[in-house]
What we know:
alpha/beta, Nucleotidyltransferase, domain 5, five-stranded mixed β-sheet, 14 helices, 16 strands
Amino acid sequence: MKKINLNDFKTANHRILRDINEAIVLNIIRERQPIPRVDIAQITGLEEGTVSRIIQRFLRSGLVYEAGVGPSTPAGGRKPRYVHLNPTKSCAIGVDIGAIETLVALSDFNGRLQHLRTVPNSKDPEQSLIAVANELNSLIRLGEPYNEIEGIGVSLIGLVDSVEGTILEGENLGWGEFIEVGKILRSRIREDVPLYFENGARLSALGEIWFGTTPLSGFRDMVFLDVNEGVGTGIVVNGQLYRGFRNGAGEFGHICINPSGPQCSCGSYGCLEVYASDLATIERYNQKVNLKKQIEHESQISMDRIVKKAIAGDPPAVETLEETARYLGMGLAPIIYALNPEAIVIGGKIAEAWPLLEEPTLTSCAQRVSPLFLETTKIFASTLHVKPSLMGAIALVQAQNFAAPNIV
């Protein structure tokens, strides 16, 4: 229960109530389109006249359009018309800064990608970000036919200042610390296009909730375990992204699962990340097939290749991923006990092999978690076909249109 701050509050006047109702209706249209007005009224409990007035305001502002008709009701009368979001109302741009490459995409108002581009990263962060800014300017020009460019959402690795867009700690990027991404990008793109920044694991959780095909809309407490070059987690509590006091919540990749294990990039030993990250999986696979640890050999093996080999039945690849799954299961235990989420979503390239990995992951977790907790926590792979953190960056922008007004 949230306590009201009696030193800083305002009451819900008619305008605020109207804005809340509009936000509810717009979100229902987004999630269930095409949908007739009468169904919106039934779902919300609002009077049909109120819903019609809201839809009329949406039509005038270009947020929605009506097309197609449904069957008549048993009582007869006019056939209901279906309401859709207007995809050309606005566009959003998403940026996902990864360890090897950066993805840049433009989406319509429905969140459907219209353009997707890849920008290779270099060892020089400023040089890399200038290249990203050039692609952003190109996408901004492509977005001009839309009624409005809502903004640019940027997914960052590591501990970030989400207001300024600064990477405070990002060892997996290899760029060092305190990289002023926001400052560099803002200096090279149009001033009227706002930028929004967030940690990639959190945006993966946001992307899954917004665009995933699993019925996550009813979940209020969820954790997204993002397995890539590192292991990060995005935490959703009561339907809201949880960031923590210093914006550092969710660093479960650095929980210790073996005090005698190898040293992690964070300086500690035996972290989940040194066992379950893509880099750790690739290293184990190389050892299994007796590859010499030389740059030319390692560059030929990627997580994508290992996953494809495992799906095809390659024994070393299957064994390697099963080991990773067992480590993931160990890492899930403290997440379940600490947060008691309704669902944990596994993301990253490894998610494509989930049919092979579900059993060893759950078995390993079950050895460390009470059945009461495990049975009530749904654990499954991400349903997004595009990188979840990129889709989350787009959702971060789109959410500006769908958020309810802040009352207290």
